[in-house]
From TrEMBL:
SMART domains: HTH_GNTR (SM00345)
Protein name per the record: Putative HTH-type transcriptional regulator YjiR
InterPro entries associated with the record: Aminotransferase_I/II_large (IPR004839), HTH_trans_reg/aminotransferase (IPR051446), PyrdxlP-dep_Trfase (IPR015424), PyrdxlP-dep_Trfase_major (IPR015421), PyrdxlP-dep_Trfase_small (IPR015422), Tscrpt_reg_HTH_GntR (IPR000524), WH-like_DNA-bd_sf (IPR036388), WH_DNA-bd_sf (IPR036390)
Source taxon at top rank: Bacteria
Originating organism: Pseudonocardia autotrophica
HTH gntR-type domain span: 3-71
Residues of the signal peptide: none
CDD domains the record matches: AAT_like, WHTH_GntR
MF terms in GO: DNA binding; DNA-binding transcription factor activity; pyridoxal phosphate binding
Family, similarity comment: In the C-terminal section; belongs to the class-I pyridoxal-phosphate-dependent aminotransferase family.
Amino acid sequence: MRPAAYKPIVDRLAAAIRTGGLPAGTKLPTHRALAAEHRIALATATRVYAELTTMGLVAGEPGRGTFVRDQHGHDGIEPDRRLPVPRTADLSFNQPPATEQTPQLRHALRELSTSGNLEAVLYQQPPGGRSHERAIVATYLLDRGIDTPPAGVFLTNGAQQGLDAVLSATTRPGDVIATDALTYPGLKILAAARFLEIAPVPLTAHGPDLDALERLCAARPVRAIYTIPTVHNPLGWTLDQATRERLVGIARTQDTLLIEDATYAFLDEYAPPPVQTTAPERTFYISGLSKNVATGLRFGFTVAPDEHARALTRGLRTTTWGISGIVTALATGWIHDGTVTRLEKDRRDDARTRQHIARAALTDLDYTAHPSSYFGWLRLPEGIRADQAAAALAGEGILVSTADAFSTAPHPPHALRLALATPAREDLPDVLERLRATIAAMPW
Ligand SMILES: Cc1ncc(COP(=O)(O)O)c(C=O)c1O
């Protein structure tokens, strides 16, 4: 096949997709129709779609056809960021693979459409969710070691909304939240919006420096400690039981709340029990289905101490009146029938394989990660700045996050967080090799 036959068609379609002439969701002609339209062989038409698929512009759905992809899903955390070059790999945001989930979703929607009480999803959902759906989540949490009545579980539109509602329920402008010097950027955004002060806790190789935390809490009133004890984002650590108990001890002595973020906790099946189990009276446990099921689902849950239940309910009502009935029905259906537990195991296996690939590709670099997590931390060689490295990588079509996005302290290290979940697994060795070579070629 001469390349000239398919390339101009690929270019024309790619341009139409990028400029919005063919908007997201457009169904493209069948391979046969495309071949007829352009007077090309069927194999050439197939090649056109294969090329557009590789470029991330279209997706084929078995039995249904080829559709223009929504490019926003590739843009990472900043919604208006555009992809710099076509061979783009997004290592800046984790969207675990979702291919097998399209048929699952189609099946679940069909089931939902024939369920006895479909109308109920159109009614306003009570803040925190309907009791039978809270009960499903409470039962699922037993496997994570958390024993709570359904009334202690609050369903949310994702972990981020849970976190926002907890801050709304428990803090006032000017309050201090202690957290790791490197932590989840979503906390920083919320703290800034709510005029909270973040007090950074210095880090050791295995977790927060608890001596420093103790001094901090003794020196000034700290309203809450935000912690990611299992598969820390971005550093990947899982705190051992003794460290968790010491953390709880500090919180109890200083009468400080604990906010435990367990969004990635499902990735470590050997982790000690959640901090919430040691201190249920003062811990908010926040998690969701973004990383174990799908980022676009927007479903989460928060377990709250009794005494904060009313304030949390108010906090949820101020951020959205209620959760989506349809999403909640789908999500709790998948929790109830075991789909979520199955997916969590698949994700752990997938993440482990991706870490093997990363370790093999990045051997001569300072790369650390939890063995079954979806991200890793890359300390750059002396003399290379994180922003320079990120810009050089963007020029090669590789998007990464720099340490400053995660930093709560004044001087972020020169390091990158690599999110490994979004690229296709078979592309990952090549992407990481390009990343390694780009960094190796940087002047320092
Ligand atoms: C540690 C952590 N917490 C919370 C969230 C937000 O999760 P959700 O999509 O459920 O709002 C993320 C998302 O990346 C995260 O990494």
